[in-house]
Structure formats: structure tokens, C-alpha cells
Amino acid sequence: MSTLSNATNIFWQDCQLGKPERQKLLNQKGCVVWITGLSGSGKSTLACSPSSELHSRGKLSYILDGDNLRHGLNKDLGFKPEDRTENIRRTGEVAKLFADAGLICVASLISPYRRDRDTCRAMLPDANFIEVYMNMPLSLCEARDPKGLYKLARAGKIKGFTGIDDPYEPPLNCEIEIKEDDGDCPTPKVMAGQVVTYLEEKGFLEC
Ligand SMILES: Nc1ncnc2c1ncn2[C@@H]1O[C@H](COP(=O)(O)OS(=O)(=O)O)[C@@H](OP(=O)(O)O)[C@H]1O
Ligand SMILES: Nc1ncnc2c1ncn2[C@@H]1O[C@H](COP(=O)(O)OP(=O)(O)O)[C@@H](O)[C@H]1O
């Protein structure tokens, strides 16, 4: 699927009221927290935890979850490489809009290809794209297998499953890495703390 615009004679419309005014209203800075990792690595769990924490502090966030988006906006897409690329591109564009609205947008998708994630990063001012890598071993994800999909993939009933017979390219320079500590996975609260602390230290929770 082409990412080039097919439309001609289109013009960008600006409005006097912009992102700075919205950020001031919300007393926060719009950004995208992009969580990437294998199925079962804890992306959705991590996405929900800081959102609750931020909410209780009066900060507005919104979660874009890959599974959920595939029920609507991306329901026409499968898991072929070009479909995954389009899935990430569309989600990146939506995340960019949420960030422009002044929200802390938490996107949680496998997003297995480095180039696609970098494309999303390039859509935003660099510091406003916070890539979080759920660096959990495949063995742990497979042992969790909450949806039974790894089992189906191992049995050859799902083809092209990430980590089994489809690639996952880990980030080379992410802002946050969540990994096991001495063989233990950090609790959702600890993982969320890592993200919220980062946002706080970088000044996203005030304007
Ligand atoms: N072939 C294959 N590979 C990987 N995942 C698969 C596949 N088929 C279905 N699923 C389910 O789809 C969820 C991943 O959707 P995403 O939109 O995040 O995927 S991607 O970013 O486009 O790769 C993923 O959800 P999570 O487990 O939450 O990651 C799976 O439940
Ligand atoms: N930090 C954690 N500690 C223990 N179990 C976890 C943790 N994070 C996620 N889980 C569990 O692992 C499974 C997969 O988590 P999920 O967030 O659905 O992953 P993903 O969105 O990457 O597929 C779920 O059953 C979830 O409860």
C-alpha cells in the first residue's frame, strides 16, 4: 500500500488556537509513548498502568492498542509485512494527532519492524516520541500465552506469527527498556513507575 498522497490541490489549514494553547489548558505536553515488543511481553498491561497513574494526577492520556485498533480503524489489515507497515503508519498518524491535541498518547503495538517505528518517530519532534521496548524473552511470552496464539503458531495453525516464524527487530536506541531483573519480570507498578518518572523528568507533566 502506497504511503504517498494521491490527492492534488490540497492545502494545509491552520488555526490560531494551536498546540501551545491546548497544552497550557491541560498543563502537560503532548507526546507519544510507543510501546513495542512481542505478543505477551506485557505491552497492554504496561499501557494501562501509567494511564491510571497519570489520570489520578489530573493528566490526560489515551491508549491506542494494536488489538483494539484492528477491530475498527485497521480492520482491513492482516499480518503480512505490508499490512503491518500500514497498521503502524496509520497508528503513528493517529498518535501524532492525539499528541497535537496535547494528550499523552500511549501506543501499544508489536510494531516488529524498526523502519516502521522510525517512520513514526520522524512524524514528531524527536523528543516527543518515547519508544519503550518490552525486552522480555520469547520463552516467557510463550509460557504466558494468554490467548493461546503461540500454541497455535507452534502447531502451524497460525502462519507468520511474530517471534516464531516472523521477525521482531528490537530497537537500537530506545528511550526506555523494560527487562527482567535477575530473572524476574518487574511488576506492572514498577514498569509504570519507569515511564511516569521519565515523563516527569523530561517535563511532560507540566507546561
Ligand atoms: N501473526 C500474528 N503475529 C502477531 N500477532 C498476531 C498474529 N495474529 C494475530 N495476532 C494478534 O494480533 C495482535 C498484534 O497486533 P498488532 O497490531 O500489535 O501487530 S503489528 O504491530 O501490526 O505487528 C497480538 O496482540 P498482542 O498479544 O497484544 O501483541 C495478537 O493477539
Ligand atoms: N509485569 C508483569 N508481571 C506479571 N505478569 C504480567 C506482567 N505484565 C503482563 N503480564 C501478564 O502477561 C500476559 C500478557 O500481557 P499483555 O499485557 O496482554 O501483553 P501484550 O499486550 O504484549 O500481548 C497477561 O496475562 C498479563 O497479565
TrEMBL record:
Pathway: Sulfur metabolism; hydrogen sulfide biosynthesis; sulfite from sulfate: step 2/3. The keyword Kinase applies. GO terms for molecular function: adenylylsulfate kinase activity; ATP binding. Transmembrane segments: none annotated. Residues 29-179 form the APS kinase domain. SUPFAM superfamilies: P-loop containing nucleoside triphosphate hydrolases. GO terms for cellular component: cytoplasm. Gene3D superfamilies: P-loop containing nucleotide triphosphate hydrolases (3.40.50.300). GO terms for biological process: cysteine biosynthetic process; hydrogen sulfide biosynthetic process; sulfate assimilation. It catalyses: adenosine 5'-phosphosulfate + ATP = 3'-phosphoadenylyl sulfate + ADP + H(+). Its EC number is 2.7.1.25. Keywords: Amino-acid biosynthesis, ATP-binding, Cysteine biosynthesis, Kinase, Nucleotide-binding, Transferase. InterPro entries: APS, APS_kinase_dom, P-loop_NTPase. Pfam families: APS_kinase. Belongs to the APS kinase family. NCBIfam families: apsK, PRK03846.1. Catalyzes the synthesis of activated sulfate. This is Adenylyl-sulfate kinase. It comes from Medicago truncatula (Barrel medic).
